Structures are given as structure tokens and as C-alpha cells.
Amino acid sequence: MQSHSILPLQDQLKPIVDLYSKGKIQGALDSIEALIKNYPNEPLIFNIKGACFAGLGQLDNAVKCYEKAISIAPNYADAHNNLGNTLKRLGEFGEAVTSLDKALDINPNHLDANYNLGSTLRELGKFKASIQNYKKVITIKPTHYEAHFFIGVCYIKIKKIDLAIIHFEQTIILNPDYAPAYLNLGNIFGQLNQSNKAIEYYKKALIIKPDYSQAKHMINALKGNKSTGSSKAYIKNLFDNYAETFNESLVEKLEYKLPFIIRELILDLDFDRKKLNKVIDLGCGTGLSGQGLRDISENLTGIDISKNMVDKARELGVYDNLIVGDIVEILRLSKEKYDLFVALDVFIYVGELKAIFKTVRNCCNKNAFFIFSTEIQTDDGYSLLKSARFSHSDEYILKTAFNEFKLIESQDINLRKDNKGWIKGKLYIFQAY
Length: 433
Hints:
By secondary structure, this protein is of the alpha/beta class. The chain has 2 domains: 1-124, Serine Threonine Protein Phosphatase 5, Tetratricopeptide repeat; 240-432, Rossmann fold (3-Layer(aba) Sandwich), CATH 3.40.50. The protein contains 21 helices and 9 strands. The strands form 2 sheets. Strands 3-2-1-4-5-9-8 form a 7-stranded mixed β-sheet. Helix 17 links the parallel strand 1 (276-282) and strand 2. It starts with 9 loop residues before the first helix and ends with a strand.
């Protein structure tokens, strides 16, 4: 959120603000440039100029303008808030917190600064602190439905489900057309095994937003409807929101270990080199498999549909290339050939595997290996489970791979824990003909 104070330049600035509010941001910026010549030391002008750059996506220029406004007026709370919000957009969360804290030191009741700080802390995984800032927003403005919504999101993260329900319901009271609140209530009641109630909320979300892929996917999962795969929007949204807490949740709480043993599995394969030339990590996520793959790769590429997950993987510095996008679409356009493909906990979101097997095969060097895991089922074929993940039968995997690959090895594994114990899976190692 960008905010502006009303200063004596109001009459001259009004047409510029009007252009900005109508989305004519370049026109507003051009007008601001002309005004700066007459007012070279007016902080409000630089604050608005920063807002224009931010609106155009030129975030580095926006930062410079806000810093200029602050250098002129160090206690300019709006500029500190806008600077913090822009730094957050740049992924510089620590600096963002510092700027937003400064805005609140100057004006503790600054609505936007409280909201933006709450959002920044939430993205940092500091959910309890985030709740306090969102609650301050509600104190200042009781009708702020988005603050209620994100309080609910934070309460889910810290396992206070009853409180989350209260705030999602309050969101709906304040804004009955806010589809994400219905979706989250559906998710909660689905996890509580109250399927009928969950489906009711998902249907309400779809009335508001008919193309809401997450709601459609969850209805299919709870009803046991046949589905060929999760929608790209569903997967992207799921993992964009999961990126900050993914490693802690999956590794520490669910005891997911497969990425850490992949190196030894690969070294047991029969190949002549100490390292494989080109390796690709399909659905690389935050890069849990990256270090092990790095040790046996001359060149390592990662693909994931979630930008936030790829950003976390990039922090590791172990991948030579990282690509954001759908696996099949990227491979179809690729002219690269690889010696090893790894896809751990990927097919549980795919369902129908024919397309991915074909595109992988088209990108194989001679005798390339394809290693992947699945959740298993006894009935032939594949199924969408109530967990919203897919399971695959051994027969389905072998039939799908038959014309493209030969089976080298398969083994039953414990994938990760859930409330009922271990989720059973299977690890496959195939080789291209």
C-alpha cells in the first residue's frame, strides 16, 4: 500500500495523484519530473515519484526516491512505510522490517505500516509477531477484512485452528465476496474430516470465483472425482505460500529424508564417470536434493513452477541453472539433453504421467537415468486422494514407462509422516532405451 500526506502543494499535486489513481502512472511520473524543477527539496514530491516508479515495477528507482524523501525529512513516516513495502517486494525482508519499524516509531498508529509490517513478518515465518501488527490494524480500522484474513492464515501456521476459523468468518462478514476466506475455511474443515462442510465452503468460493482452481481441485479430492492432474495455478499457489516454512515442515516435522539419500542411490548405479555431465532436478522446490546432486553433477539444473521455491533454491548456490515454469512445457521447448532426471515428490501433484514420461525421454542422452518417487496404491491406475495428492499403482508406472524406459530398480520407501503414521511410497530407477 502506498500512502501520501496532504501538504501545501495539494493543488498542484492533485492532477498528478489523479493520473496515478487512474493507472496513468507514466503520465504522473512525467508531471512529477516537471514539478521537481520548482521544488527540488520537497519530500512529498519524491515520495510520490517513488510511488510512480513502484507502480511501474521500477523498484530500485522507487527506493532511491523514498530514500531522497527521507534524507530531506527524516521523520517522514509515509516515506519510511513506502520504502519498507518496496524493500519487501525486492525480497529484502530484514531491511524492510527496519524501515517499517521506523515508520511506526514515528507514528505507531500508521495503518499501512502496521499492515505492511504484519505482511513482512508473515513472509519471514514470524507468525506470532505478524498477528500483533495485524491486530493493531484492526484496532485502527475494525472493518479491515484483509487483516482479519491474514490473522487467520497466521493462526493456521501456529496450529490455533479455532482462532483461525473466527477470523476467516469475520473476513466474510466484512466482505462476503472474499473468495480466499471460503477456500481457507474449506481447507480447515477438510483437514478436520468434515468433508461436507468443506465442500460447502469450496462451492461458495466457486460462486464468487468460478475459475478458482484450488477450490475445484479440493472438491474433486474430497468427492473422489477422477482428475488427470493438479492445476498449475493450484500447485503454484500451494508452494509459493509454503516456501518459507517448507524445509522446516517437511524435514523436521514430517521426517522427509529421500533428498538426502539420493546421492548414494545414484552412485550405486553403473556408469563409467565419477560425475554425470548434465543433471536436472524436476520440481526442485527449495533445493533439498541440490547438494547431493551437486556432488555428482558437472552441470546441475533445477525446475519448479513456484518462483518463491526457486528463490529459496537460488540461495543455496548449488545449481548452475534455475528455471521457473511447468516441467512439461519447459522440457518441450528445451534443446538440452541430460544424463539424469530426478523427480522426488513431484508426481503426487501430476496424476497422468504420459506427457512427462514422453518429454523426459525426448531430452535424454544415451542411457540416461530417470529417478522418481510416487505414493503407492494397490488398485491399477492412479487416484486423487482426499489429501489432494495423487497415488499411482506399480502397474500404471510400468505400463506408462514401457515404451520409453527400462526398469533398473524399484523399492518401497517411507516418504514422510502424517497424522496416521508413515505415508508409503515407491522409488523407481529407470534408464532410457
